[in-house]
Design goal:
241 residues, mainly alpha, 2 domains
């Protein structure tokens, strides 16, 4: 983690998050990659004859490589890095600025790769069926912060998980929105749910039970995804005093 009371660079923070979630692509060398960014940015600065003048995000494993391999356009650097004080590279920088701003927090709360990491991590936690909620929360908290959670912290996180569960169990549309928005992660649960939608069209009790089970799995995954995403946005995760 970063070594002073300021926000970590997005390169360091994102690589750490992808690593603990199991999504980090550790492939070395090769061509630059284009992680997700808001659509239409390059078109605002590109000349008609410039190449490339449009941005097509990479998908699959390329979207989860270290930021070292991110394609850099001097006319419009990656916005995620710019918000986290990355130099423009138009001149040599001996020491980069370090700031801690609300815009950085807003980025991390909505960054597509962060949600993909949160969902993948949530899936791995739920695969450990022998663990209790408290054990899963403690494991996740310790992995991302390098601290064992205090009883009060553990209780607050459990309350948060319960609130997310209540929300998603009562609102299937919110579950669909959460999991559908996360197109970067390999979401097996979403694929299963699509099959369940088709299966539920039949009138057999077995298919009805299958659809109900898959619906419960999806709501549980959405709840844990939000909890893990909250952990990724804690001050203790993003900064170090």
């Amino acid at each position: 983690r970063c070594s002073q009371s300021a926000a970590c660079s997005i390169a360091h923070s994102l690589s750490e998050v992808l690593a603990v979630s199991g999504l980090l692509n550790r492939t070395q060398f090769g061509k630059s990659v284009k992680p997700p960014q808001p659509a239409g940015l390059w078109e605002t600065v590109a000349m008609p004859t410039s190449y490339p003048n449009s941005y097509t995000p990479d998908e699959g494993g390329k979207a989860f490589r270290r930021s070292l391999y991110t394609f850099w356009k001097r006319g419009l650097p990656p916005p995620q890095m710019t918000i986290f004080d990355a130099p423009t590279r138009e001149s040599c920088t001996a020491r980069r600025e370090r700031t801690n701003t609300p815009l950085q927090a807003l980025l991390l709360m909505n960054e597509e790769q962060y949600f993909a990491a949160a969902q993948n991590w949530a899936e791995s936690l739920l695969e450990k069926a022998q663990l209790t909620d408290a054990q899963r929360i403690s494991q996740a908290y310790e992995m991302i912060t390098a601290h064992i959670p205090e009883p009060q912290t553990l209780d607050e996180l459990q309350q948060g998980l319960d609130a997310f569960r209540e929300l998603y169990r009562s609102d299937s549309a919110a579950v669909d929105a959460m999991l559908a928005a996360n197109r970067l992660a390999d979401n097996e649960a979403s694929a299963e749910a699509e099959s369940a939608t088709t299966a539920s069209a039949t009138t057999t009790q077995a298919n009805a039970n299958t659809a109900a089970d898959l619906s419960a799995k999806r709501s549980e995954l959405a709840a844990w995804t939000m909890l893990v995403h909250s952990l990724l946005n804690l001050d203790i995760t993003k900064t170090r005093e």
